Amino acid sequence: MPLTHRGREILRRVPGGHLRGTPAVGCEIVRHEELCVGCGTCARVCPSGASRRGGSFDVAQLLDAPEGSRRGELGAALRVLMRHPPEGPIEVPERVTVYRTIVHDAEICLGCGACARSCPAGAVEARPPRTDVAQASGRDQDT
Amino acid sequence: MSGERRIVAFCCRECAYAAADTSANARTALPPSVRLVLVPCTGRVGPLHLLRALADGADGVMVAGCLLGQCHYREGNFNAVDRVAFVRRLLESVGVEPERCRMFTMSAGEPPRFVAAVREMDRVIAALPPLPRSGDTAPAAGTTDAAVAGMGVA
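^ inputs. structure came back:
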């Protein structure tokens, strides 16, 4: 069921608040790197510190980025100039904030999905654990 | 198009552009290769501006801003310094000379410094071979070898 803006606001403030069918923890976090703009919002909202803004950037990500996106445009310009495929990740200066690779550590991740909810680019997906999906859909059918 | 050098200079309105204006009023000749682009602050210049300029036909790009710590918007030029450094690393990682992108700082009252910066940039670019682009026909000899070597690394 779609939530109102206010409902979503409240949900955000409640500790452990989550949408029905989306467990508060235990989701599988899937990152779509080609959509990521590297803004670091996920790193800011992450309660466990599993998502971090890395200090380096993989140049190949620019070439994979979809056309029309900010990264894609940079990649298109780079492709014109390119003499050989990019050599590994490069160090990013401190004040360049958006061209960074976000590091997601699945070991520490709680699977709360805060990153997926906050991601402005829709690059993070929180997949609920399989059993819970089955239960949730079962419940929905009963009611 | 070939044979002619083109350098795009992004100039801060508060300092470098004012310096350029003063030097022009004094009838100081700038290298004909330079094209000035007025920006409100060098903090407005992003990696895409610099890279797109190079991709679209410039042989070099320079960013001319205020002296460090004297930005009229407090820290715009610090952002520019880091972005220029980032673009240089990007260029380096794909085998383009990083010297093609450079940052200069000066105050509004230093037209000679601006002229010196532009001449310096022109001299550096003149010493470099022409910048090949993927749209160009017949890649230069050695490009294929470099590509193969690069693939081995990646």
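Chain B touches chain A through 35 residues (CB under 8 Å). The domain at 7-153 of chain B is CATH 3.40.50 (Rossmann fold).
thumbs up if we can close this ticket
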